[in-house]
Amino acid sequence: MRDGVDDLEIGLLLEALYHRYHYDFRHYARASIKRRLIQAREQLHLSSISAMQDSLLHDPSTLPRLLDYLTVQVSEMFRDPSYFRAMRETVLPHLRTYPSLKVWIAGCSHGEELYSLAILFREEGLDQRTVFYATDINPTALRAAEAGIYPLEQVRKFTANHQKSGAKSSLSDYYAADYGRAVFDKTLRSRVVFSDHSLVTDAVFAEMHLISCRNVLIYFDRPLQDRAIGLFRDSLARKGFLGLGSKESLRFSKHDAAFSDFVRDEKIYQRAEP
């Protein structure tokens, strides 16, 4: 009985969040949303999901705190190094033929993937002809991404990943250590546009040569996955590239025919000919 009540309360809270603040989590995978909301309820010391809804509607400070639970903020630089090696060795040689490039990091979280790609493009001499678009629905995450500051204890893992990606430099070339923090070089974001963008409700905003959206679709239900993939299809230039997370696939999407496998094992796809 309690589960049924929780599910009803969660549905009402997600509707309130959408209608009051225009954040739409109604088609995120419900089991994942339920886990996060229960965690939020406990951490915010609220008696029920309904009490959380009341707080959301009447206390403006609740929204950013709740968004931090509903949006996944766990990542690392050069996560899955073989993905970045495949980008370096197979995708960038194609991108090198363009005089200018646009790269979209969708669901950029705190910016780890953005800085990974910015460093990769710099090492390959493509950074000065590239504009990066880093988007997320969480404004707190976007501010963290723009700051480019990470706990120093994470940098050992970042460095190991970077080396495995086929690095042509040392990661230490790109940050300064400061009071237990790694502060990344501001020139890495000199050609970055940070923007609030929702894969649930927003439309195409530019023509891209590469879209990297990793470990985001796994939190969507099937119709929302299809919407996002359709958005990527419409955003990509002819023969542009799409990179997904290791547990994600286009295999069951209704847009599967719009893409061809480019590096199958790394979930890198190419926009098929129209």
Note down, in words, how this protein is organized.
This protein has 274 residues and is of the alpha/beta class. It has nine helices and ten strands. A hairpin with a 4-residue loop joins strand 9 (259-263) and strand 10. Helix 1 (2-21) packs parallel to helix 3 and helix 2 packs across helix 4 (62-70). The model has no long low-confidence stretch (mean pLDDT 92).
Mind sketching the topology for me?
Layout: H1 2-21, H2 30-43, H3 49-58, H4 62-70, H5 81-95, E1 101-106, H6 112-123, E2 130-136, H7 139-147, E3 149-151, H8 155-164, E4 175-178, E5 181-184, E6 192-196, E7 208-213, H9 222-235, E8 236-244, E9 259-263, E10 268-271
Parallel strand pairs: 1-2, 1-7, 2-6, 7-8
Antiparallel strand pairs: 3-5, 4-5, 8-10, 9-10
Distance between the termini: 51 Å
CATH class of the largest domain: Alpha Beta
The assigned structural class equals: alpha/beta
Shape, principal axes of CA atoms? globular
Average pLDDT number: 92
CATH level-4 homologous superfamily of the largest domain:
Vaccinia Virus protein VP39
